[in-house]
Structures are given as C-alpha cells and as structure tokens.
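PROTOCOL LOG
Step 1. Enter all chains and additional molecules of the complex.
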Amino acid sequence: MIKPYDILKAIKERKPLIHHITNWVTIYDCANITRAFGALPVMAHAREEAAEMAGIASALVLNIGTLTPELIDSMIVAGKKANQKKIPIILDAVGAGATKLRTKSTSKLMSRLRIDVVKGNAGEIASIAGSEAEVRGVESMGVKGDITEIAKELALKKKTVVVVTGKVDVITDGKRIFKVLNGDARMGSVVGTGCMSASIIASFCSVEKDHAKAAAAALCCFGIAGELAAKKSEGPGTFKEKFYDEASKLDEKGIETLKKIQ
Amino acid sequence: MIKPYDILKAIKERKPLIHHITNWVTIYDCANITRAFGALPVMAHAREEAAEMAGIASALVLNIGTLTPELIDSMIVAGKKANQKKIPIILDAVGAGATKLRTKSTSKLMSRLRIDVVKGNAGEIASIAGSEAEVRGVESMGVKGDITEIAKELALKKKTVVVVTGKVDVITDGKRIFKVLNGDARMGSVVGTGCMSASIIASFCSVEKDHAKAAAAALCCFGIAGELAAKKSEGPGTFKEKFYDEASKLDEKGIETLKKIQ
Amino acid sequence: MIKPYDILKAIKERKPLIHHITNWVTIYDCANITRAFGALPVMAHAREEAAEMAGIASALVLNIGTLTPELIDSMIVAGKKANQKKIPIILDAVGAGATKLRTKSTSKLMSRLRIDVVKGNAGEIASIAGSEAEVRGVESMGVKGDITEIAKELALKKKTVVVVTGKVDVITDGKRIFKVLNGDARMGSVVGTGCMSASIIASFCSVEKDHAKAAAAALCCFGIAGELAAKKSEGPGTFKEKFYDEASKLDEKGIETLKKIQ
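Step 2. Run joint prediction.
Step 3. Record the structure below.
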C-alpha cells in the first residue's frame, strides 16, 4: 500500500534540491509548487553550470516545453552527471509528437540518458512509444490503442517508469500498474498543472527509491490539492491561488481520507 | 453590427491552436488567457520547429517584448509558413520606438511578412508609422498628432488592420474605424494585459475572417472581463485572478449588456 | 531618520523606468511589483539593445538567477552605459556560491562595473566576500562568521552598498549599518520575493541618491506589504495576490505605524 504522506513528510524534513531545465512558460509555477510541497527548486539551464547544479541536486527535471537544440545539449550534460551520481531524472515530454524537433529530442534524451520517469499525456506517451496519436501543440487529441498497454510496453522496453496523465493517471514500471483517480477538471482549465506535476513527481522520487510508488503518491497528493482548491474557487484564476494554498497545507488525515490509488 | 459572443462561441467549439513567439515576461499570462477564452495556446520559438508549429496552428502571435535577433529570425520563418497557409498573424510591437532594435525589427517583420493585425499603444503605433512619439520602455508617453488618423493611414499603407490600445481602443483597416470603450483602469495596473489582448485578438481572428471586426470583438470581450474583475478586486493582485475567472465565464447576455463598440 | 514614504511618493510622481536584465523564473513578478510600487519596469536583455535601454532608464537591475555567459555580456554592456550616465546598478547575486559560473560571473560583474548595491542572502553575500558559506541552489544554508561584519567589510572593500536579506535585513555602506525588521515568514514560502525586493531597491535608488537609505526604505516598505498581506492570506497562493494589493496601497500612515528600521 502506498502512503503518500510518509513521502511528503520526508520531503518537508529533508528539503531536497530539485534542479529543473525547463520551459519559459511555466518555469515560475514549477519552482513555486516545488516550494509549496516543501522541497527547494532551482532552475539552471546554462551548459556551463547545468552539470554542476545537477550534481548537488536530489532530482533533475527535464521539460522540453520550449526546447531549443542548445537546451537539449544542457539537458544531456546535466543528465549525464545525474546518471553518474544516481540522481533520479524525470522527463516531461511536452509536445512530443507535435513537431519533429520535439519527437527527435525526446528520443535523443531517452537514448543518451537513463531516464527514471518519463511523463506525458496520452498523445505524447503514445508518440514516444511509436504508436499512432494526435498531439496538437501540447494537447493530446486522441490515441489509437489502449494507452495503459502502450505505457506498459514502453516501460518494459525502456526500463523506466512511464506516467500518463489524464482524467485517470496511469503509472507503470512495466510490471505494476497504479492508477490515480484524484484530481479535478479545473486543473485542466489553467496552463501549468502538467509541468507542475512533474516537479512534484521529482520531489517524491528524490526521497523514495521506488519511483513508480513515488510517482503515484505524488500525483495523488497533487490531485487532492486540486480537488480541495476547486471547491474554494470560482474560476481558473482563483483556482490557481487556492491550489498553492491547499498544496502547502496537505496533511496525513486529508490525504488518507481522499486518496484514490488503484 | 458586431456580435462578439458568436465569435467567442466559435472559439470554444473549435479550440483553435494559437502559436506564440513571444516575450519571457508575460509568456505564461498569454498562454493562460488563451486557455481561459477556450483556445489552445502553444509557445515554440526554436527556429528548428517554429515553422512546423505555425503550420498546424490557426493563428500566430509575434510579440517583440524581449526580442533578440535570433527570435526575430524564428518569427520570420514561422511567419512565412503562416503566410503560405493563410494563417493570420498578429504582431504586438512591444516597445517599438524605444530602441533602434525594436523599431528596426518591427519594420523588418512588416516588410518580410504579410501581417494581418499590428497592435500597439499610441506611442508604438505612431513610431511604426514614422510619426513623432515618445515610448519609455514599453509605455507610451505621448504622441504628436491624431492617433486615429495615424492608424488609418498606416493601415492603408501597409494593407493591414491596425489596433491602438488605450483608454479607448481604436481598430481600423483604413476604411472602417471601430472604437471599443470597454475596459477598466485597473487593467493598466498589472503587467501583461497588453500582451494578453494580442493573444485574444489572435484567437478571435482564427475563427473570424473579418479581422477588424474580430479584433474589435476581442477587445470588447477582453475589456468586459476587466470591468467585471475590477468590481470584485481590491488591488492589482486580486484583480489578476478575478480577471481569469471572469474571462472564462463570459456569456452572451453579459457581453450584449456591457459591450461598447462604436 | 529614514522616511520611506517620501521616497515612495517620489517614485509614484516621477514614474522612473527600471531596466532589468534578469532571470526567466521571476521576470514577471519583478515587472509586476515594480509597477505596483508606481515605477515603470522594462526587461530587455539582447546585447543589441541592452545599453540603449539602460541609457534611458533611471536604474538598472542585474539578476543572475538563470544566467548564461551571453546574458552576463549583455549585463556588462548595459552596466557600462549605466555607469557612464550615473544610473544606479543593483546586482542581485542569486545563487552566488552554488556553482563556479555564478561565483565567477558575480566577481566579473563587480570588477568590470561600478555596482551601487549588491544584494543577496547570507550565503550569497558571504560567498562573494570569500567567506565560508553553503548555498544550496539559491538557498542560504549557513555562513561561518558574523554576516553583518562580513557585509561591512565587503562594502568597504568594494565601495558599494551591501544588502543581506533574511529574517532581519542588513544594509551597510561600510560605515553605517541599517537593520530592517519588517517582513513576514510567509514571504519565504513563495518563490520570487527575493528578486522582487531587488526591483524595489532599484526603484527607491532611482529617486534617492543615498543608496543605503534608499535600500533600507525599500525593504521596509516591501516588508510591510508582506506583513499586511500575510494577515489576509491562507497560504502562499493567496498571499502572493494580497501582496500585490497591499504593495500598491501603501500609504504614509501605514508605513510610519509599522516601520522597524534600526
């Protein structure tokens, strides 16, 4: 059984440093949600310092949301150091499948680095797996086939944990499958929740070695914060602020009462 | 007569992809307001994917707020593809007139691409038209001459729709002139509303071919969201959040009751 | 005696342009808080316009939060113009001590430019001074020695004003020492307050030539806004919005009642 609060408590106690090489759209939100959950965010994308910063971090987030070839190079430099020091890497494959650059860069990162968790929506994960899918910009418009099966095969083939976010989040290491039913439709009404969830998965993976469990626990907590915030908000603007409030206040009782992990 | 809600409804139904090559200050807000109005935002500035992303989009926003020569190159590459595929381009000439780089880059974009709508404050538009104006940073400090006349001549000369934002927004294709009186002073108290309005103009132009009408309808809806939010806020911080709430809740009755387009 | 409101009033009257070359995480917040205090923010990092923009500004903020070597070059170009025109420069040494690139770049900026105010947390300032300190990402984890003495010596050696932010902010020009006790723990619960305070110090220095006094007054006002916002908020999300509201409403009575400068 997964006890999300135990992992969350460890984050709050150890304050792990979560290094991000990420996009310019949601970079603030990724930093701020990391802080709200009790970890320390840092963003450092220059090739000249990316490896050094990764080397002192407890997890590394690679997000290709506004990628350039130079940024991918920095990601590889940072990722190699992370691999060397056994620091978990979370890859958020934003828009994989939408353009050749995104699809190729994702493939490059996955072949050059040992990725511990790869995360995307159904369209992005299916694209990475080589299945048929439509990705419009950064939105999944549809996938051919069963996404859980696609994720499972990808996890086995790449020896990684695969996370498919959606109404129900699917997390699999190829053997086990966890499904997280927490969350609220309001989370999709604001930009950034997808990227932010990768920061939280990274935070959980930084203190829990079973990365599939860590990812499921992270998405459960993240989703619960969304449910609580949705109840107190009147639209996407107030939702966003309440989300930070609720994320920072999550406690054992609230999580255990609301968690829906299968 | 302009029926803004009909266009807004088409956006919510068709979910057009709005591609942005924009600045790093308000990039999140541009994405988030696009989503709040029902369209899908995407931000992709790498030269290697800018054209491909523009090619699958329904409108392209070019915003020079934190321009570099490399970014202008990406804009031209993306813009050419957009022109080829008849996807409308909205140019937000942030800070034109403040530095040589901004003035020259605006001129370069307007000569190399067919720009469907060019938007700026009075100082920026006057600078583009070659009239005397003072632009301090990204603020208009004053213009010599009648800005409506300047806009009209610029529209005729460049065969484009010109949008001058201000207390009263002026929209002209050189023949017709629309004035939008919606909005609230609070909108000027936060950074980002100018850039966000270009994203909304782009969203409206993506589903309505009469771009002057589309721009007027967009600014009307945008201004109404501002008016409603101002009533519920106590300062720039709470205003911003309420603005997203109100933008996402705009309905036909509210728009028809409050719209002020001349 | 320092009268923060007199300086704040001058900002609101003169609307100084505050040019930033800063990081991509908090760039929006820096712009927005500058506006909330009544000054005009501008962000322009391209080498091709950085000097021209600095030349028309009333203060220049250099923030190395997501530095690259190219960005440091732009900072030097802009800084030289600022020095030439006697425009005050505020350096926010984000993460100095955490990586070689940050430590070296800070040192480069301080040797090539006349920096009027250098700001950091205890770990960053101690690193700059060559004292022993631990900086994890952008957080100060501990300093060996008395940070007030370290700051004082650094100020004398570099002929600059040194600002150490923390529970108590220390401001010194090497001769005088001001301590600001305003602020609230909630300010540390959100990303961005550190960077934002540099924008406000810059705004105050743009209209008050005694930069030590200006910095103390700025941090006093900034801290008071934080105290007022904390009382009205329920977590980091709502705090952030209320902070903007309160910052924009600061008045003489409120400041004089709450100010704690020693």
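Step 4. Note key features.
The interface with chain B takes residues 17, 19, 24, 27-28, 31-32, 35-36, 40-46, 48-49, 52-53, 56-57, 240-246, 248-249 of chain C (CB under 8 Å).
DSSP finds eleven helices and ten strands in chain C.
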